[in-house]
Specification:
Two copies of one chain form a homodimer. By secondary structure, the first copy, chain A, is an alpha+beta fold. Helices cover 29% and strands 26% of the residues of chain A. The longest helix of chain A is centred in the first third of the chain and has 23 residues.
């Protein structure tokens, strides 16, 4: 008999069906027992007599089962349905006790224990929902950019030169030559603006920064976009605003159950996302919080929190653009503000008071790269092959990058990014 | 004035419009001159008087321009339209001569010269079409799998243990520990069958094999899928058949112009793809071609060509499954054929006589992994964290992997895979 899944049960009331999945829970009541079967669409309840349980003797939760039974309405059961007259077959027995329970509403494991056993722990319904939301963000990102005429690209991850600085890249032996893992597809996506004008990539990036924080890991998924024929960074911010709206709309449509399970209130993007110029942001933090960081080249997390609070109170917005970060803190390919060249045509997008997206306008004239590199004391020698495209006609362009796992973590208000990362890589963890 | 692109010209006949793009060609006829502007949607022709060309003095092809003009019907022009009364503004001047011409129907550069300058060479309309077809295959793959209930996953590329064999992996320094680049998401996608039943990933894979052939590179994009609750590898082949059909339908719908430009005849997938059992395939090659490779553990490229020819003649099919490859040549996690255990529940999908997809059923019981590893003389010690999931209930499962660039190359009948790879990585090439 063809297998059906839990979400299809309601189409088969009164019929005999076959299901398959994992033994999620078993309430032994004696004469009548309630078995919960978990499949990719949810939970289904089966009612078994004492003697029906014989094949499960000595077996543990997560045993893989095939069940046949008749679908009967039962208001107290999940989905309001349950299986009666059940035949049960063990497909894959589980003899060992699980490292932690998967059938409680919340995982009881600590983060390190969870991560040690994440190959099993990710089966927990809340973790499933988390990972499905990540997949939904990626799908929403692609859908929004397709609608804007962007083309998907796949750029190499093994590179001959570090994009930004040599200190924070993983080094590799490439057939006897030194090579590196790409920190970002930055130069490649710029190059591809020369080909397709508007490009995006969803792929891994690698950062060898030896920090141990709750919001960094050393490998993550980056949602990258780059576009040509812009006026300045505000053109990019407009595009990002539409993309953010598209991602949230995608989640609202496709991840209803996941958002409900995790009690996530989806953020909203209004007509426009408010923005504030970097020096004004520092002034504001000083006035509101008394924290004087005026003249500092970057915002600290506490400044971002204060700004997020302000955006929420002042505009009812979960999002806030901070524009014009000082050139001193931005990479050398960043386009300066033509009217205030110590500042840049760049931005960060804060989401609920934390940096979620970084972007800006880039240099697009070869000679400007040479001048900027000289000023930064950088040699362009390792980048010649990449920079060639700027000799051959590049339009004004810019782009942005969203950290996927960070987006999920902030949406879910996870205490640690690692709860929103499939199999995190950090200073201490390279497995599983 | 808001910029329009070439594909929108026909909506603006008689109006004044602004366009922007690259100087693709300029035919200087004296009094009347024809300029071709290239943007992301195609070519548009503008007619300019001699004096209108002044801003282009000393500039080369690929100069980035903004043009304003009135849209006029002109049957001889591309799109049947051209711009008159043109004002021209240079956005990014090009002073250097291009390494090769981009405005001829075919690229004249040799492959090595092309690859040295691929950052510019990929702008050629044929290369653009090639890369758009690659993007279309990836999009079609995702769409087909979504329709089948698969969930997208993003697995780590830095791993503690090589999946299959230590000799062909890139080694990495991970904060002082040895680590490797993932050859495939194999174990991870299997683990994730325990979470979502059906999963897919589109991502880079890394192979340190030091070969120099026209059909291998050392980094490529792998379209990976894995599914649970299968009967055997035939369940996987059925799914792959639908996915192939879905990809080709996606291309037929979304890449019409690209396929026409490259004169690609799209392959067709009928009701089912024919299949042949490995030993029978060897017999057939012997009977048809007189090549006696019976008893050999694998098929050579000439065998695959002969089988492709046979499938074409016998079934009118571009595709052929070869099933049951000898266990000796398949990785240790492959599920043996229960009735003929020297052979495996695996398959290759040949496309026009060349291997395009590899797949099969995997072991799903922990003890079977232990036995298989012992038989293969392998230690499971480095894999313990991955294999834990098999102790905790894994359904019968299998999957497949499609090499994206190879698929494009075979569809286009490219002489070398590198023509279908954005920025290839091989023994000799790590740039751009």
């Amino acid at each position: 008999m063809k297998r059906i899944v839990a979400s299809e049960l309601s189409q088969h009331v009164g019929e005999r069906v076959t299901m398959a999945g994992w033994l999620h829970n078993l309430r032994r009541m004696g004469r009548v027992n309630f078995l919960l079967l978990r499949d990719r669409t949810g939970l289904a309840q089966a009612v078994l007599g004492k003697e029906d349980l014989a094949p499960l003797e000595g077996l543990q939760m997560e045993t893989v089962l095939e069940l046949s039974g008749t679908v009967v309405e039962a208001p107290a059961a999940p989905l309001g349905l349950e299986l009666h007259g059940v035949e049960l077959k063990v497909l894959s027995p589980v003899a060992d006790t699980l490292p932690f329970e998967l059938n409680q509403p919340h995982l009881s494991a600590s983060l390190p224990v969870f991560l040690d056993h994440a190959t099993v722990g990710q089966r927990h319904p809340r973790q499933q929902a988390t990972l499905r939301i990540a997949a939904g963000i990626a799908a929403g990102f692609r859908q929004a950019l397709h609608a804007e005429g962007f083309t998907e690209i796949f750029t190499p991850k093994i590179v001959a030169s570090a994009t930004e600085s040599g200190a924070t890249v993983f080094k590799l032996d490439y057939f006897g030559q030194p090579a590196y893992l790409a920190q970002s597809p930055q130069f490649y996506k710029q190059i591809m603006v020369g080909v397709f004008e508007k490009v995006y990539e969803v792929g891994p990036v690698f950062r060898a920064e030896p920090h141990a924080t709750t919001r960094h890991v050393n490998e993550y998924v980056s949602l990258d976009a780059e576009m040509g024929f812009i006026e300045n960074h505000f053109t990019v911010m407009d595009c990002l605003t539409r993309v953010m709206r598209g991602i949230l709309a995608y989640l609202a449509e496709h991840c209803v159950d996941e958002l409900a399970m995790l009690e996530v209130e989806l953020a909203q993007v209004g007509e426009a996302i408010p923005w504030i110029y970097f020096p004004d942001a520092q002034d504001l933090v000083y006035r509101r919080e008394g924290i004087d960081a005026r003249g500092e080249p970057d915002l600290a997390p506490e400044h971002e929190r204060a700004l997020g609070q302000w955006a929420s109170e002042e505009f009812g917005s979960d999002f806030l653009f901070v524009t014009g970060y000082p050139m001193a803190k931005r990479p050398f390919y960043t386009h300066p503000n033509p009217t205030d060249p110590a500042y840049s045509n760049s931005f960060d997008l804060l989401f609920r008071g934390m940096e979620l997206v970084t972007g800006g306008q880039r240099l697009h004239i070869y000679d400007d790269y040479c001048a900027a590199a000289e000023k930064a004391g950088l040699s362009l020698e390792p980048y010649q092959e990449y920079l060639e495209c700027f000799k051959y006609g590049m339009p004004p362009h810019g782009g942005f990058a969203i950290g996927l796992e960070r987006f999920v973590a902030q949406l879910l208000q996870a205490q640690n990014l690692r709860w929103a990362t499939l199999f995190p890589r950090d200073l201490a963890r390279l497995k599983p």
